[in-house]
Design goal:
By secondary structure, this protein is mainly β. 15% of the residues lie in helices and 52% in strands. It contains 2 helices and 6 strands, in the order αββββββα. It has a 6-stranded antiparallel β-barrel with strand order 1-2-3-6-5-4.
Length: 136
């Protein structure tokens, strides 16, 4: 069987056809205060890609069983999404939990989970600063 070559620009066209715009909160820095609390800083950037629902699962939490939605996200490899970044989808916050170690044919794939924004006070502060609700 002969080897064949796939044109990587084909995948750019596929992503462009099935993609939407999202707000991407990229973690740009981390500080630790005097009490040992970690505080991240975020930058809001536009992100274009395809979000695919992957299902829901129930996990135990301090307050009981919590339902967590999981997603796969595909975008062009120019976006350097990393663990700990957030994507805002409708009124839900999704946190990046894993990133594929390589980009195949110029496509980046990440896995996301629904996140409770109350657990990430630094994210809420960054969003309020970006929307003008809070003046830094």
């Amino acid at each position: 069987m002969a080897n064949h070559v796939i044109d990587p620009s084909y995948f750019d066209d596929v992503i462009a056809e099935f993609s939407f715009s999202y707000d991407w909160y990229h973690c740009t820095g981390m500080d630790v205060d005097d009490y040992g609390n970690q505080k991240n800083t975020f930058t809001k950037l536009p992100l274009v890609g395809s979000l695919q629902p992957h299902g829901k699962r129930r996990t135990p939490n301090k307050v009981g069983m919590v339902e967590v939605s999981t997603y796969d996200f595909y975008c062009k490899s120019i976006y350097r999404i990393d663990n700990g970044d957030f994507i805002k989808y409708q009124n839900d916050w999704l946190i990046v939990v894993s990133v594929e170690p390589y980009d195949e044919y110029g496509v980046r794939m990440v896995s996301l989970e629904s996140a409770n924004p109350a657990q990430y006070r630094d994210l809420l502060e960054a969003q309020k600063a970006l929307t003008g609700e809070k003046i830094i």
